[in-house]
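Posting for a labmate who doesn't have an account.
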Amino acid sequence: MIKGIYFDGKTSDKKEVLLTYDDTGRITFSGVALAPIAFDVLTISSRIGNTPRYISLPTGAQFETEDNDAVDQMVKRFSTGGRVFSIHYLESTRSIIISTILFVVLFAWLFIQYGIPHFSRQLADMLPEEATRVLGQGVLDAMDDHWFDESELAVDRQAVLQDLFKNLADKTRPGKVMKLEFRKGGLLKANAFALPDGTIVFTDELIQLAKDDMEIAAIMLHEMGHLENRDSVRSAIQQFSLAMFVMVVTGDVSTSSSVITAIPFMLVRAGYSQEMEWQADSYAYDYMKLNNMDTNHFANIMASLEASHNKSEKEVPQNDGESIKDYFSSHPASNERIKRFRTSSQNK
């Protein structure tokens, strides 16, 4: 016997009844004016944990019970054709649970480590120029509201650097929309970065850090390399994809609006992978070698940036667990990157 509640399927009335069955599999319900029913015509819901089971009758009536074990025994006795409840079997088998957890963890790691970067490159390459410009619109305004102040560089100094930038842009990316902006870096100190709409931003602190305009030119070439490779778009796509992946896994759909509104900050806070940085370096390296520029200029400014960021990291107090390197973790130079340009200069 199986104790449960009977719904006739026609009204909202419910009645406590007992389900009984005989050796032939004929089902009856106590207290209900209903002829015996063959087991084979019943529809029985799968067992999921300890949630109630539902047995649906051809008449539209339904029987609800929490006695899962008794239902399982009845199914095991009368079921034919391999009728099993695989969900309960899967969730109650330790080896399958462990294997599933390991598979999910491995899949998540592979997807994040390789899948997202791969598809971000494909998607970034597919986007038309107009789409990347739209994606970058408003980003600099958002940064001005939160991080930057108006540049304090003299007008004539800005004009000299604008001429230098235009000369490089005409030679490296003719016909491409690019512009140079200057800002006082504030918390970000000495930095330069490229936005999807073709804007390259230099902070006053970076300009002042350079000992030679050719050092600034080397950084300009590096940032043009990021634009050429669409690294800011790729990085934003990666961060957005990761956020959406976490949202799907956790089921927290309410965060979707927050993710969308955070896109502008993803573009500038995402940072670049080592591969992206190396490729942007290669862009600058190839141009400098082709045009007989001393590659030491790049090595020198990167070494100065490294020293500047290390000094700032010690001097600037932590702000809610964040540090300068949390903002632009890509640009502090690595020894390998500096060595690459030093070695090239020495081999002239």
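Reply:
Got it, the structure tokens are right above this. Confidence is low (pLDDT under 50) at residues 317-332.
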